[in-house]
Write a structure and sequence with these properties.
Elements lengths: L1 H4 L8 E5 L3 E6 L7 E4 L1 E3 L6 E3 L6 H20 L7 E6 L5 H14 L4 E6 H4 L9 E6 L4 E7 L2 E2 L5 E3 L3 H26 L14 H11 L5 H8 L10 E5 L3 E5 L1 H6 L2 H4 L8 H11 L5 H5 L2 E4 L8 H13 L25 H10 L3 H5 L1 E2 H7 L21
Parallel strand pairs: 1-6, 6-7, 8-14
Antiparallel strand pairs: 1-2, 2-3, 4-5, 7-15, 8-9, 9-10, 9-11, 12-13
Helix pairs in contact: 2-3, 5-6, 10-12
The structure holds adenosine-5'-triphosphate and magnesium ion.
């Protein structure tokens, strides 16, 4: 890219989607990010590997971001950030401190030409070419649901709960420790101790994540009901997983099958993922509900798990026909969109498509403007929500 870039007058803009677990980074107009890397960096002060979102205060975040953005530009895409246009795909629920600090790092430290902040739920629709959808982002920290109607996010209907990869991994670790203790005793009796060479409670997060992605799946609704009622079911085969090159641990079939159940379990507050979807639709205007239900759009890495989408649709349909919702939400059809890319970078792709339009020139915040304002306009701040009335020629 950098070779051809020297020939053209304009520098190609970059697109950054800085997620809680993975960062997607690449150029506008391309069909996939150049890199998808963990959002972590070696801390300049302590030398430890730290997640970007584990910051303690603004200064800490600033130094983490300086290192991280430097690595993105100079190790992964090999172009200079100076005088470059940047598109940032961010959640509408992103903390203001994070957004302001990221802007400060890019404008003041790396001297980028301009930044265009785009809401991830909204630009994800650019990949489909539709204006209305209920966007359900199941990433790492939480599931975030925001309906978009005719290109406008309906903010009063947003829903968010910590029901995503982090909760699944915590459940997997928990189930695994319980099952492991039972298995260890049983193996001790029959002398097969080699299989359980490692204490599972000390497995690092990255290993638990790898076990989840390679070994776990979302089970069917029928089997889930049987397991929750402790009815006898045929267990899936266990998985032998190698750690540290030479040690084997055995992942029981039941752990592989039940880790994702945490998303669909209905607790006392009925905050399962299917409840949140229907609650969000109910919060929207009555004339928009049918269209939203027929345009569900799942994005985020967690929805890539085998069986996730079919289970999700079964749960939503079953809840829709339950006595709790059938009167309040009399809808017959629920449909799901199929994105043209992998689910974990659909929002990034939306940003890459949006950034390739004239909107980049029209809506970006230039460095000069930022330096005079010393802040980034924010939808949540009333000071920036002034009505702009263009003066008509007299
Ligand atoms: N094929 C897969 N099966 C199951 N999980 C997967 C798969 N691929 C990725 N994941 C999980 O998706 C999660 C990351 O998803 P994503 O990239 O959408 O999160 P994020 O954008 O970093 O987080 P957030 O949106 O909460 O800020 C990781 O926990 C990863 O383990
Ligand atoms: Mg994300």
């Amino acid at each position: 890219m950098s070779i051809y870039e020297g020939l053209s007058a304009d520098k190609l803009a970059v697109v950054l989607d800085l997620g809680a677990r993975y960062t997607k980074f690449g150029f506008i107009g391309e069909f996939a990010p150049r890199c998808i890397i963990p959002s972590e960096i070696k801390c300049p002060s302590s030398g430890k590997i730290r997640y970007i979102y584990s910051y303690t205060d603004e200064n800490d975040l600033y130094s983490l971001l300086v290192e991280f953005v430097h690595m993105l530009f100079f190790k992964h895409v090999l172009v200079t950030p100076k005088d470059r246009h940047v598109v940032i795909v961010e959640s509408l629920l992103c903390p203001t401190l994070f957004r302001d600090t990221l802007a400060k790092v890019l404008y003041r430290h790396f001297e980028v030409a301009s930044i265009l902040f785009v809401p991830s739920h909204l630009v994800a629709l650019c990949t489909l070419g539709v204006k209305t959808a209920l966007v359900i982002d199941v990433g790492y920290e939480e599931v975030q649901i925001i309906p978009v109607y005719e290109g406008v996010p309906i903010l009063k209907a947003w829903q968010a709960q910590p029901l995503a990869a982090k909760a699944i991994e915590a459940r997997l670790r928990n189930n695994f420790i319980n099952a492991y203790n039972n298995m260890k005793n049983a193996a001790g009796d029959c002398g097969d101790t080699d299989t359980f060479a490692e204490d599972v409670s000390e497995l690092p997060d990255s290993v638990i994540e790898d076990i989840k992605v390679r070994g776990c799946f979302v089970t069917t609704m029928e089997r889930s009901e049987m397991i929750s009622k402790s009815e006898p079911v045929k267990e899936p085969p266990p998985l032998k997983y190698r750690i540290k090159g030479d040690k084997l641990i055995l992942i029981p079939g039941i752990c592989r099958e039940t880790a994702f159940e945490v998303l669909f379990e209905r607790d006392n507050d009925t905050n399962s993922i299917q409840d949140l979807v229907l609650k969000s639709i109910l919060e929207c205007g009555i004339d928009t509900r049918k269209q939203l239900a027929e345009n569900l759009f799942l994005v985020g890495g967690t929805v890539m798990a085998p069986g996730f989408k079919s289970r999700f649709m079964r749960e939503v349909k079953a809840l829709l026909h339950s006595p709790e919702y059938c009167d309040r939400l009399p809808l017959n059809t629920v449909k799901l969109h199929n994105p043209p890319a992998k689910d974990n970078y659909t929002c990034w792709l939306g940003g890459a498509i949006f950034g390739a339009t004239d909107m980049l020139q029209m809506r970006s915040l230039s460095r000069e403007k930022y330096l005079s304002l010393n802040t980034v306009p924010d939808w949540s701040n009333l000071a920036h929500n002034e009505l702009v009335i263009s003066k008509l020629p007299t």
